[in-house]
Design goal:
Oligomer: heterodimer
Number of domains of chain A: 1
Radius of gyration of chain A: 21 Å
Strand content of chain B: 25-35%
CATH class of the largest domain in chain B: Alpha Beta
Low-confidence stretches of chain A: none
Mean pLDDT of chain B: 87
Structural class of chain B: alpha/beta
Strand order of the largest sheet of chain B: 6-7-8-3-9-10
Structural class of chain A: mainly alpha
Number of helices of chain A: 13
Shape of chain A: elongated
Distance between the termini of chain B: 35 Å
Shape of chain B: elongated
Radius of gyration of chain B: 24 Å
Strand content of chain A: under 5%
Order of helices and strands of chain A: HHHHHHHHHHHHH
Largest interface: A-B, 26 and 33 residues
Amino acid sequence: MNWRRIRNILFKEWEDIFSDLNNILYVTLLPLLIIAEPLVVMWLVARFGGESLIANSLIQSAITNLSREIPSAAVLTDMQQFQVLLLSQFKFFLMLIPTMIAVSFATFSIIEEKQSRSLEPLLATPVRTSELLLGKALSGAIPAVLVCWACAAIFFVGVAIMGWGGLIPQVLTPSWYVIFFLLNPAVALLSFLLGVIGSSRAKDAKNAQNMILLIVLPVLVLIAIQIIGVVWFNLLLTLGLSIALFIVDYLTLRIAVNLFQRESILIKWS
Amino acid sequence: MAAIEAHQLTRHFGKLVAVENLDLEVAQGEVMGFLGPNGAGKTTTIRMLSGMIAPTSGYARVAGIRTDDPVEKLHEVIGLLTESPGFYNRLSASRNLEYFAGFYSQNDMPSRIESYLKIMGLWERRNDPVGTFSKGMKQRLALARALLPGPQVLFLDEPTSGLDPEAAEEVRGLIKKLSGEGRTIFLSTHNLTEAEQLCHRIAIFRNHLLALNTPERLRRQLFQRRVSIRLDKFNEAISEALKKLAAVKFFEHQENQLSLSVDNLEKDLPGIIQTIVFAGGGVLEVKEEEHSLEEIYLILIREEDKA
């Protein structure tokens, strides 16, 4: 693996992606919408009918799990505990950001090369398939993670503005940091690798987009599991999940390289 | 050592035989024209020789490297001009070249980029997005890209296809210049005039090799040499005298213009001229009739059709 070549792909991709205003709007507006959603939900819950929601057995079991994970939350009122629960769900909403960006960018990563006929001259250079695919995946995953982190900062500012700043320390547990700095990059890289696979196998951009939409599903499942309290992602679990995902990332890259049939791509797209 | 060697190179796509048992050697510094109609397997051959696709059977060696070895090594020493230029339209010409240059190990790429942009007449437009370029400009930029690694062997797939005559002439001029620098060039084209102008040898190909030689030898291989003689007047005595000459295989005339087929032009022509003069003809002009590459090509392709 030649990192100089991967860096070459990264910088070119960024230059190409961000020279298009639509792309800039997509990576800024979409994450803002994603972080606005939990803020609005929190406000709505606090404003209308929070008590009836808290009485729900699923929510009660989630709050019990929360108290086990964050003992200091036990001294809070029911409503505050519920708010901490909502705040702690946000870490999973964050995962939607790289996956949604992947759906857009990774979809076009190889398809666009095929359509502009730049893939053949590119493959005529000494670039290796693994370098090309990793470069493409990282070029999307790195900005997606940075946007994700920026969104977290904006979210907490929003929480503070809404008057719940005192609850933030309850949320920033060690598992939160693991999710933030390990799980999220792993999910981002996986999303983009899967996106690149979809893009390299698809017949056209629409076909690729349909394939890549499937990436979002596991993340949605993860959010649902956490919300309904089936599994509480404590430090050990999040750490284990992060490591497992990095291994999956590596394996996915290997699979992507095997699935990227230079020859059939060239023949089908000439 | 030959710059390009192909041994029984064959490629099937399912039941379709795109290239069959191609045996070929191209010497270093030679410009080889690869002529054939659409669908003849020219692009498939170039892709096999440049290591982009694998042969079904047979093998090839380019610049001393087997094309079935890991392809990175081969791609360091060859240049490929693909049929479609293929650029990133939002990026500038120089940025496009910088990107492709970034995959090679050479350190002097910035100066090469500058040099080739100047040679291709694109230096003034180097900062403009490629999307604003004409087809001819894109083709010249693609040629610059193919030259970036300083290739020992350059594959050009239909380099003037789709270009207007002026742009095509510009590209041909550049190919001539590259040939003058001693590079081995493998030129796939169906433009016969272009092949005749640029190539040392020509391979006529339709899924398999139909003929391979210099344009001159291909002519001799297929046609008897013909000479055209303009006389001040033509008379029966000249006709009778020519009929008696064994060296003249065939002749015909149209008014004062005489056309003869001769086996050995250099040896027999003085005697023929003398015969005509003795028969009372005044010789005003003598010139050898040239058969165009187009005639050669059409004969071979039609023979192939009949077969």
